Amino acid sequence: MHAVAEAMTGRPDSFPLPERRAQGSAAGAAQERVAWPPGDLAIWIFILAELAVFAIFFAAYAFARMGELELFVTYQQTLDTNLALINTLALITSSYFVVRAVGRIRADDAGGCIRWLAGALLLGGVFLGVKSLEYAHLFGEGVSLSTNTFYTFYLSLTFFHFMHVVMGMVILAAVAVKAAQGHYSREVHTGVETGASYWHMVDLVWLILFPLVYVM
Amino acid sequence: MLQYKSQAVAKPYFIAAIALFIGQILFGLILGLQYVMGDFLFPEIPFNVARMVHTNLLIVWLLFGFMGAAYYLVPEEAETELHSPGLAILMFWIFLIAGALTVLGYLLVPYARLAELTGNHLWPTMGREFLEQPTITKVGIVVVALAFLYNVGMTILKGRKTVVSLVLLIGLVGLAVLFLFAFYNPENLVKDKFYWWWVVHLWVEGVWELIMGAILAFVLIKLTGVDREVIEKWLYVIIAMALITGIIGTGHHYFWIGTPEYWQWWGSIFSALEPLPFFMMTVFAFNMVNRRRRNHPNKAAMLWALGTGVMAFLGAGVWGFLHTLAPVNYYTHGSQITAAHGHMAFYGAYVMIVLTIISYAMPMLRGREAANSNRSQVVEMWSFWLMTVSMVFITLFLTGAGILQVWLQRYSDDPQPFMVVQEKIELFYWMREVAGVIFLIGLVLYVISFFVGQRQPEASAKPLPAVSPAEA
Prior knowledge:
The complex is a heterodimer of chains A (216) and B (472).
Chain A: H1 2-9, H2 18-27, H3 41-67, H4 69-76, H5 81-106, H6 110-140, H7 149-180, H8 190-215
Helix pairs in contact in A: 1-7, 3-4, 3-7, 3-8, 5-6, 5-8, 6-7, 7-8
Chain B: H1 10-36, H2 47-78, H3 85-108, H4 111-117, H5 135-158, H6 163-179, H7 189-224, H8 228-249, H9 262-272, H10 275-290, H11 299-321, H12 326-332, H13 336-365, H14 374-411, H15 418-424, H16 426-448
Helix pairs in contact in B: 1-2, 1-16, 2-3, 2-5, 2-13, 3-5, 5-6, 6-7, 7-8, 7-10, 7-13, 8-9, 8-10, 10-11, 11-13, 11-14, 13-14, 14-15, 14-16
């Protein structure tokens, strides 16, 4: 896990992508970087692949819901929208924190970067805690994967996303550790952007998942 | 030329792999003929025995290939001699003799008698598809695997640790650990099948993909001279996707065996994305070759490396997707569609990756500087095309047979019995057999390629036109 996180966060100076190197040399080293996309290109390929998995998951949900509309609507109401709303706010806020963390490292303030990342991690922890409460409640009621199609999807989708939050937190933590070790600076911070990009993806998926599964 | 003397232990592994490959294809041809001439070679080699030998030989020669690949590439990656070349050679002979005895056992005595002779009643593990080996052979496989992992692991530990060798090692450890489920044989048939797939599926759609990715990455680093860091990043993304889709993708085998219904959703959704890592491998291979920093004189190895990406994507990815969704699989399960997928997936992913590393390593193992002569390479490339194109045809004919079979036997308003349908799709089986003969010709050419042009000078490569550093 650590190795993966390490690779995802990247070591910006040791392997700039060719495109980036070309841009960098054209723009001049001292100038503000205009690299696009932010972070490592590899994470964007990974994000694309992950979004594809979720897209198929959502499509399957829609397909199943079409077939059993009444059942889906009925059991949707057993979910706790308030808790989900808290989680939505937690994730959106954490994304904002991550944005601030990137901003701080661009201003060469590693300490600030670490503090904002810690905040984001804390909110990620809140998300996991609240979600666990929800699961505990449902399992207490005797709900399982096999209860009905709605719960099959609810549990699978949210748990798959849950695991992504965990993964995102591992990546953010790895970034924070590297920041604390002084690996990032105004010039060199692709790793921070890489972690941030992944975290935004985790957030984005929840922003689709929340209305789709809890509200609509 | 070998960078490390101990890499030489890979050579007998590769030679054994090719020899068993020939055996596998011969039994494949016997088997193919038995589809249309049911009593061909009966009672000497009945259909079930021929099938067992065909599939078991495949697995065993691929394992020889993987081990040879590891013995070749790990010293080079770790930049140190292999921990114990002697152990590697000893294990080679143990594995080869155990394998040969097992196949002889299949051929010479009835299967039930073999079970009796090898004391299957003491710890019953026999009688399951692909895991037909006597329990004692299975124990032998574990011993060989442990010694092999110890040898490779120690080498990596004492030397340079690269992403390629670590991914390879994770794949190989996974292979060994998952094989242990071959020893778990519960009474309950559902459970039996459930864990049986942990060996079968989690091998070919899980840990083997790591092995394949690592070997491909190694060969591409060597052939293209592209920065290791770039290739390693691709490798990470590919194996992450392989594991995310492949592990839960096991569910596509759990649709109709008595497991809970949610497996139909899980299996469909995750395995629908299993083509992704294979597609990435193709893009990866072509991308790296386009960015190459040098032209390598071993063009045949380059051809195999590109070919394995494409064929794995088609065979494992596209042909797998064809029947992986539960509503489709409801009709196609266990039909010739499965056989079509199995043939092209195994050939494209695992046969071709082993042939890639053999093609790359063998010239050095035989004392060449970097590549074979042009003449030898031309013959090898002919064999590439003959085998690959005939495999495409085998797959297409079996797909045709499968579609017809599913229609006549399961989908039409008036479903017909299995054997009636088998007769109606006979033409496809004949065509498949013809394609199989051409495959064998390709394989013979492949073997010949090792013996032609030996005295001719090595092929040379045109240097790449110079590029400015900014473009590189």
